[in-house]
Amino acid sequence: MTTAIRIESVTKMFGELAAISELSLEVPAGTFLGLLGRNGAGKSTLIKMITGLMNLTQGTIQVLGEPMTPKSLEIKKRIGVMPEGTALLEGLTAPQYLRFVGRLQGLSDEVIDNRRRELFEVLELDPGAKTLIADYSYGMQKKTALCAALLHGPELLLLDEPFEGIDPITVRVIKDLLLGLMDKGTTLVLTSHALDLVEKLCPVLAIIDQGKLVASGTLEQLKEKHAGSESLEEVFLNLMGSGGEGKLSW
Questions:
Q1: Rounded CA gap, 63 and 54, in Å?
Q2: Percent of the chain, pLDDT > 70?
């Protein structure tokens, strides 16, 4: 398999609104792709369609060599997802939740518990044995969601704003963890508004705006297309516009 994700002429309509419009994109296996765009550009919608959580209005998506639909259960077992919200079962503790997730993936309790302990140690997550997820801080909930996405050793990992609400030390740990997965051949797709992090992590980039793909390639390729751009932030601003002056009248 040389292509992990193949998106062909995909459109997603919500009533009269096109959240994604005639978008095509190919992600080679083993790639670490940074998926960028302003708020409301369609990034989260695209991830939900890639993972089979949302139906397409038009077009096709292949994931790990197979057509993706909401009923593609065997493909979904090979994917890890950290969604836009944490989407956790807040009435459980983190160990209980990971037991639930791991059993859905067909893992034995012994494997689940061993991996959970290692993930907790790496991410410095120690919520207390009886503390429910509902009582965790937002950062702790994000760490728990990341543990759930990684627990079964996915071939494809999709992360929607994984660094939001995470302290700087853990950000560094997660960066190293993700780069280690890339070195092992895992395909990763990351959305983030932290362009400096994306620039350091992601060798390949795709930028969407109003549901359409407006640029893709390596950072060097994007710099060449946008003369004078010295960073990913400058490329992004050249494509999106710099916005207003950021001044108030009082």
A1: 14
A2: 98
Can you identify the CATH homologous superfamily of domain 1-78+190-241?
A: P-loop containing nucleotide triphosphate hydrolases (3.40.50.300)
- Pair 84, 43: CB distance under 8 Å: no
Report pTM.
Answer: 0.92
- 8-state DSSP, 39: T
Q: What is the pLDDT of residues 223-248, one digit of tens each?
A: 988 877 889 999 998 888 766 677 88
In the chain, where the domains are located:
1-78+190-241
Sequence-ordered list of residues with C-beta below 8 angstroms from that of 64, at least 6 positions apart, any chain: 1, 4, 75, 78, 79, 155, 156
What are the counts of helices (DSSP H) followed by strands (DSSP E) for the chain?
9, 10
What is the spatial distance between Cα 59 and Cα 21, in angstroms, rounded to a whole number? 10
Over residues 138-174, the pLDDT tens digits come to 999 999 999 999 999 999 999 999 998 899 999 999 9
